[in-house]
Amino acid sequence: MMAIKARWQFEQAATKDLIQTIDRLPCVDKINPGVGIKITGRKISFIGQTEVQPVSVEITEATGKGSDVVIYLNRNIVSKALEFGLFRLQVTDELSPARFSDDAGRQIIVMPVRQDGPPPTAAAATAKTTAAPEPNGNGKAEPNPGTLKLQPQQKGATCREQHQPQPALATVTSPMETKQHSKPQSNKSKQ
After folding, report:
1. β-pair partners for 10
2. What is the pTM of this model?
């Protein structure tokens, strides 16, 4: 078992302010919106990611100590942990799960998220390259009806505003050929 590098306690009275600070920080990853928690000596900061540079806000409503570490966690889960009254944070390292807990023994274990945003997807790579001709006989590229369209990030919107629930996408299916099987006829002619 690895040793805990940092132990911090957030003030219960500042819960709404902490959650509001997390919500207002910018984020890049729409799928798994992260917030960085930077611990340096006796200071703790929340970090939001922009496409240009990170934005850091020092949190004065917390006390603690530990080694220097920066960990990125899902901001929605961090907000929920604080809403549930889990004000104690324990961090081992950047890649290990963080632990939010309280005096009664309740806890949430939170896995870190990627600090540099989502990995490039096949759809994004395809959108950047020139479309190759499809083998449809006419030499022209035809769009795939099942491909999702990527939407650009809204400028000036917070992560929570960007992550409003969307209706489920309808799946595109091609018609399938079905074979009808005839039932075996019983042999009643032998009597």
Report:
1. 62
2. 0.63
